[in-house]
Protein: D-serine dehydratase
Organism: Zygosaccharomyces bailii
Amino acid sequence: MTDLLSKYGGKSFQSLPTPSFVLQQEKFDRNCKLMLNSVHDLSQITGKEILFRAHIKTHKTAQGTFKQLGFGIPSSKMTSNSILISTMKEAHGLLDFQESLGKDYVKDICYSMPAGVIPALEQLSILSRRVESLRIFVDHLEHLDNLVRFGLPASKKKWSVFIKVDMGTQRAGLNPQSEEFLALLRKAISHDVSEVVELYGFYAHAGHSYSSDSIEDAHEYLIEEIEAVNYAAQLLTLQAPEMDLSKLVLSVGATPTSNALRVADESKLTNIIQKKLQGVLEIHCGNYCVYDLQQLSTGCIKDYDISGFVLGSVFSSYEARNEILTDTGVMVLTREASKVPGRGLCVRLEDILYNEPFNYQWYVDRVSQEHGILKTYENSGARSTDVKIGSKIAILPQHACIVMGQFPYYFVVDKDGTVTDMWTPFQKW
Ligand SMILES: Cc1ncc(COP(=O)(O)O)c(C=O)c1O
């Protein structure tokens, strides 16, 4: 990798081999700053402490994580030390990296799978010794039984637990209005588990907010997320009236709902936070540092906010069917989809660095293992014969988290498109 950096460092991204994943540092930094600043501003407006937790699953790199937390982002108004991981490898890679720098930016790690099963607890126990605070999710009574059976983790601190709330995504978690949820809550605060378990808070993730069509839609999901975790907190008060809820963390977010913190009419949100909330609000999100077509289709962002793209090459073209062949097949772009048709939108290299809406002529219509086929929009007038064989194109991916997962490293470029760095993700398991 050092070899690659010495070969391409200081050169234009246009000279990079293809397919490559390119991150535009200025846009990445701006996305990180805007999110931290909107959390900070909401805290100022409401006069309430609001925490921030960054999910690092999109890029899985130490460098990207530090930026999400506000380190190395000069104009961000706050920093945080809390992250979510989707694999243990992310946590260990990141901690190794920050230890090699002698830093302790990351102090609080939450594993984002409900993981109260013994093999996962064994791994989490090892991780508990490396980080100040470790949080886990539970959403099943057996998870609590397993925690008791396992005993304290290696850190000798109690397992700090978020109860995972499902507020409509139907992936992980329980509906807070269900009997199952109440049973889990009762058990989590019972004497049966209190030797090893400490209830840290409630966690909701509105994954289904990706179907939003506007920031106003996403705002509605945000309110629902907050109401769902707050409902859970109210249940807790009923179950344990003597309990001090001032430290209870109510964690909500997904990239669309976190973007919706910026909605102009904040009165409903501020009212809930100031008058109704039982604990401390925490906002969590991940994809926002890169963005992609799935986020574009929510109506919450502009295409030029997307900070990462795939660089591909034109390998051939077919005049009769007016199509172009590229080296960006399913192994690169995957089969992720959104309301934006195709597997990716093509942007001319001279436009991709812009901070204004792009002009599209070609999109990736279909993919097979290594082949990507570009089609043009009806009436666009674009002809495959006008596209040079061997030329390069930038492609905005449908889902950055999954597409970036296909690459062993990312090239980082400055605002002029000059390669300045390479980041290595902690991929796979
Ligand atoms: C449990 C959990 N929390 C937070 C996030 C972050 O969501 P987003 O990438 O939409 O910000 C995810 C993403 O899948 C998740 O699974």
Notes: The two ends are 21 Å apart (CA to CA).
